[in-house]
């Protein structure tokens, strides 16, 4: 394996972290809550995709259906569970999302069991380049490409559509937005729905690399949280760059720094997160909240 | 333009009852001033109308009861510029204005309204791309009012527009009110501490004391009222 391959593999893992991290940022921006169940919700979405695939649906169709279903379920979770905790004690909201994580984990084990399942890749096997340079897998490139599509789509939605403006208004000031006639509740539902849909994509991207299991997203969530915090929890661009950085550093450290190796890889982003929080609590790309008093 | 009527409205926060049996009538196309000391319930009256505070009793627009959710009230044509202005600091001036028109279907007309408002408040055009948080207090108040007008409301509720503004700017804003009322077809209910100024541009006035209506009349009657002069006008 040469350096380029290592970097691209890191970018590929980083893209998965980034996708889940974007879901975290979506939820945090709209409702001010860090959804610790985001990864677990992605797991159940991935199981749904697997079930559809197992029943004979083509892989892209299965993933697409799971994404749409997640959008609906994510919206319902906001409406019927999270709604009453918005704007309240942050700790209460954290306890609720952690409770949701544990419940969904139990539900997945109950429905699908704990035996690992093989999830098909949405991309063809093989890759480009050969010989001394090694090959770069289509899966690696496809994962990075999928993230870029998500980023561009979200950017377009938020910056260039009326719906996106409504989202930004509600995220910044729900009361003012209601006074403008914006349906705040429905927009927050849609925010959670979109996050769940993006999370579902993350799950379906990572599942072929690992095996499908109830705990599949635990480490991804750790990295995604690290990326979201590094990115400042509000900036999509910052989050993606941070996630790529984490993916690459993790991969290179695991390969080239002997005492880190495969087992200690997961510690690298956490150490980074602690350092950043010490030095720059608002994140590398976050902006300090400026308030007039 | 519309008429706004409150009949026997009670409202409060939790167990603290603020409004007791408030009844008032804001005539079609009038500017009505709501006066009263701090804590008299002026802001709560506006918040009850726009659904931000739960209330009992009847609140009617053109004789029809209003819905209870704030967004539904807004969609009925009630624009509420709250105390502190409620502009969205993180959004640009332009985005704030566009957010005010998000629910309109007549987009061509909405763009024309935006141009009109930029002519009326040139600073909103000059600083279109700046973050709203960077505007001065007076500019933010202009933005808040312009954003409210972008929704083409029939009723405008203004909560202490003078708060934190220099006297001259406050005066400019108030002098503008009758013109806005005429050009945009508004019925206006304005809460104001600066009673003299508010009464000078208003048609009618309502005085609240401890959550009850104690006086109503034309602006001229109220400003000539000895008790009111002693209590609110400082002479």
UniProtKB/TrEMBL annotation, chain A:
The entry's keywords: Amino-acid transport, Cell membrane, Membrane, Transmembrane, Transmembrane helix, Transport
UniProt cross-references to CDD domains, sorted A to Z: TM_PBP1_LivH_like
Pfam families: BPD_transp_2 (PF02653)
Transmembrane portions of the chain: 6-26, 33-53, 59-81, 93-115, 135-158, 190-208, 220-246, 266-285
Bilayer disposition of the protein: Multi-pass membrane protein
Single Gene Ontology MF annotation: transmembrane transporter activity
A cellular-component GO term for this protein: plasma membrane
Example GO BP: amino acid transport
Subcellular location: Cell membrane
Primary location: membrane
PANTHER family hit by this protein: ABC TRANSPORTER PERMEASE PROTEIN, BRANCHED-CHAIN AMINO ACID TRANSPORT SYSTEM PERMEASE PROTEIN LIVH
Similarity annotation: Belongs to the binding-protein-dependent transport system permease family. LivHM subfamily.
Annotated protein name in UniProt: Branched-chain amino acid ABC transporter permease
Automatic annotation (TrEMBL), chain B:
One Pfam family it belongs to: ABC_tran
GO biological process: L-amino acid transport
SMART domains found in the cross-reference section: AAA
CDD domains in the cross-refs: ABC_TM1139_LivF_branched
Keywords from the named record: Amino-acid transport, ATP-binding, Nucleotide-binding, Transport
Domain called ABC transporter: residue spans: 4-235
Family, as annotated: Belongs to the ABC transporter superfamily.
Protein name according to UniProt: ABC transporter ATP-binding protein
């Amino acid at each position: 394996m040469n350096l380029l391959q290592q970097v691209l593999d890191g970018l590929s893992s980083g893209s998965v972290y980034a996708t889940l991290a974007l879901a975290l940022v979506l939820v945090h921006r709209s409702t001010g809550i860090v959804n610790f169940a985001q990864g677990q919700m992605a797991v159940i979405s991935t199981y749904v995709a697997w079930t559809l695939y197992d029943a004979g649906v083509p892989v892209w169709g299965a993933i697409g259906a799971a994404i749409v279903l997640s959008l609906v379920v994510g919206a319902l979770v906001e409406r019927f569970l999270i709604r009453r905790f918005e704007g309240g004690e942050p700790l209460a909201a954290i306890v609720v999302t952690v409770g949701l994580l544990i419940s969904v984990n139990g539900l997945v084990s109950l429905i699908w069991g704990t035996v690992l399942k093989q999830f098909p890749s949405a991309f063809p096997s093989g890759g480009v380049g050969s010989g001394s340079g090694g090959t770069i897998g289509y899966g690696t490139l496809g994962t990075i490409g999928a993230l870029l599509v998500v980023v561009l789509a979200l950017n377009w939605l938020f910056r260039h559509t009326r719906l996106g403006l409504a989202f930004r208004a509600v995220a910044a000031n729900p009361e003012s937005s209601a006074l403008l006639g914006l349906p705040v509740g429905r927009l927050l539902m849609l925010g959670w729905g979109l996050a769940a849909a993006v999370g579902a994509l993350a799950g379906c991207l990572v599942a072929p690399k690992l095996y499908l299991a109830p705990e599949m997203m635990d480490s991804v969530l750790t990295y995604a949280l690290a990326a979201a915090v590094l990115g400042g929890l509000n900036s999509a661009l910052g989050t993606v760059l941070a996630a790529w950085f984490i993916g690459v550093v993790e991969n290179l450290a695991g390969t080239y720094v002997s005492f880190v190796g495969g087992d200690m890889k997961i510690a690298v982003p956490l150490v980074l997160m602690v350092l950043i929080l010490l030095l720059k609590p608002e994140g590398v790309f976050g902006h300090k909240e400026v308030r007039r008093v | 333009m519309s008429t706004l009527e409150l009949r026997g409205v009670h409202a409060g926060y939790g167990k603290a009852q603020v409004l007791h049996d408030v009844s008032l009538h804001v005539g079609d196309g009038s500017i009505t001033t709501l006066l009263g000391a701090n804590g008299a319930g002026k802001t709560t009256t506006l918040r009850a109308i726009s659904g931000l505070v739960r209330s009992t009793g009847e609140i009617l627009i053109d004789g029809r009861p209003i819905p209870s959710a704030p967004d539904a009230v807004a969609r009925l044509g009630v624009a509420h510029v709250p105390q502190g202005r409620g502009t969205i600091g993180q959004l640009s001036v332009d985005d704030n204005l566009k957010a005010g028109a998000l629910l309109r279907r007549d987009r061509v007309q909405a763009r024309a309204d935006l141009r009109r408002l930029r002519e009326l408040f040139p600073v909103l055009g000059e600083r279109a791309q700046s973050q709203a948080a960077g505007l001065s207090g007076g500019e933010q108040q202009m933005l808040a009012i312009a954003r409210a007008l972008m929704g083409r409301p029939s009723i405008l509720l203004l909560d202490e527009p003078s708060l934190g503004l220099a006297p001259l700017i406050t005066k400019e804003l108030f002098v503008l009110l009758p013109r806005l009322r005429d050009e945009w077809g508004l019925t206006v209910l304005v809460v104001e501490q600066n009673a003299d100024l508010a009464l000078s541009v208003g048609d009618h006035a309502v005085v609240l004391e401890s959550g009850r209506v104690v006086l109503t009349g034309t602006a001229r009657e109220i400003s000539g009222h000895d008790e009111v002069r002693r209590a609110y006008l400082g002479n």
